[in-house]
Amino acid sequence: MAFSYPRKQTVIIFIVSAVAVGATAYHVLGTRLALSSAGKIDVVAISTTPPNPVIAGTDNWKEQFVSASSIEKASAKNKPVAEPTLTENFGSDFFMTYLGLKQSGQTGNTALAASNFENVVSNAFNSTQAPTYKQANLRVVADSTPGVMENWKEGIVRALNLYTWTSNEGMILRDSVDNEDPELLKNIDPIVAGYTKIIATLLATPTPSSAQSTMLDLVNAFAQLKFSAQSFRAMGTDPVKSMTAINTYTVGTQKLMSALARSGDIMDGAGIELRVNSLVMDVPFRY
Question: Which of 209, 232, 238, 261 can pair with 85 through a Cys bridge, CB separation 3.0 to 4.6 Å?
Answer without folding.
Answer: 238
